[in-house]
Design goal:
alpha/beta, 12 helices, 7 strands, globular
Length: about 375
Amino acid sequence: MGVKEVTVHMTVGNGETSYANNSAHQKIGISKAKYVLDECLKQMVADNGFSKCFKMVDLGCSSGPNTLSVVAEIINTIGRLRKLNNVDHELPEMEVFLNDLEGNDFNNLFKLLPSFYKKLNEVTGNEGIRCFVSGLPGSFYGRLFPSNTLNFVYSSFSLQWLSKIPEGLENNKENIHMAMASPPEIFEAYARQYRQDFTTFLTSRGEEMVPGGRMVLTFVGRSVEDPSTKDDCAHFTLLASSLLEMVNEGLVKESDLHSFNMPIYTPSKQDVEGVIHKQGSFNLDKFEPFLVPWDAHVKHEDTLDQISQLCANGSAPDHSRGKRVSDFIRAYTEPVLTSHFGSSIIDNLYGKYAKKLAEYLSTEQPSFYNIIICLSKK
């Protein structure tokens, strides 16, 4: 299989399976990261004071409502810090860049701006912080800004995406990611691509950011150093099983399955720390892992224990729960799958996937292992 460049974006629009309507899980992660964000901004102000024009970027902003809520939180935090420090002169201006790849649904995001500005004016009033928001298409695995211009970088659930599918995955066959059954060279191929991409990311931001600037990055990680000892990506294992079922039914070509791999790497703590220390542009000020259940965003009447008890008594799994988890994962995997397999199989595929998820969730209580880090520019 040749190395394939991938254009990643979330499912566009406002439909049932769109990212805009299936990003509550990310909102939970953003909420859990709030205290790290607040601490990071507080320390940044303590070290560097207040910039007359505070320039920040949200890298991998996507197109849902979460993006502008984070921007609003950062603005409010800076406003609170100004009051705590009795800063009454030279009201700051904020220049905010919303970055994602060219395929991102920027139109959907820009439609949210009028209400964002209205709420911001209501909170800050005429004497508040002035904010100027712009869209910035392009890959964050490379330069996006002039040298020494950025004060703050934020990214939420984007850095697990690789710039391209790694080389050397020919023997991964019926796996579509790093699975416990994958050959050893598969793990190394993914790790090698991650090291290359994250190094490029840090080098680019190191050139763009002012000394003392900060980054807060949240991404999906891995709870163990050796990925062959635990399946932290069982959701992809179930998705691969759904594709294999379609191969057996003659709905998907076996060669198409064998040549497909997700361009995602879930790094361990050792992966993250190793690249940061070797690249050398940043200090790692904070590393905080946290768990979010697969179905944390799902609202249902029965508790997990009640559902497990029903299944143990022979009742059918909660298929609506499986469907809602499937919709959440579909919102960020569908575009990549469609580009490889075509659109005709998609509804059937995620229908099968929802059933497998329902069965799995009837006996297991899996969680995503997420990581928050705060970095300061040396």
